[in-house]
Amino acid sequence: MRTVQATQAKARLAEFLRLAEQGETIAITRHGKTVAHLVPAHVQESADYSEAVERVRALRAESKRLGIKMTREEILAARHEGHRY
């Protein structure tokens, strides 16, 4: 992983975007502290997917533990609960 200062990242953004496209992760620092990571899109998408799967698994386990049973239709209807249309 490459580490660059925020000012350097700002000045050479196009170069760092190219590196991220090629699969490299870049840590961006300010005053010696890491404040952000520039990561390839597929890495973030994969992490988002993995997190969503884990959250569903935890919800299923908790529902089972509490004895809550929902039909497929109830689950699909619940995903829109609270939405404003």
What's a concise summary of this model?
The chain is an alpha+beta fold. It is built from four helices and three strands; from the N terminus they run E-H-H-E-E-H-H.
Descriptive overview:
This protein has helices at residues 6-11, 13-21, 41-66, 72-78; strands at residues 2-5, 26-30, 33-38. With 85 residues, it is an alpha+beta fold. The protein folds into two domains: 2-39, YefM-like fold (3-Layer(aba) Sandwich), CATH 3.40.1620; 42-78, no CATH class. The radius of gyration is 20 Å and the shape is elongated. It has a three-stranded mixed β-sheet. It contains four helices and three strands, in the order βααββαα.
How is the topology of this model organized?
Elements (H helix, E strand, L loop, with lengths): L1 E4 H6 L1 H9 L4 E5 L2 E6 L2 H26 L5 H7 L7
Parallel strand pairs: 1-2
Antiparallel strand pairs: 2-3
List keywords for this structure.
three-stranded mixed sheet; elongated; YefM-like fold; alpha+beta; 85 residues
> Given the helix and strand composition, which structural class is it?
alpha+beta
CATH top level assignment of the largest domain: Alpha Beta
- Portion in strands: 15-25%
Low-confidence stretches: none
Number of strands: 3
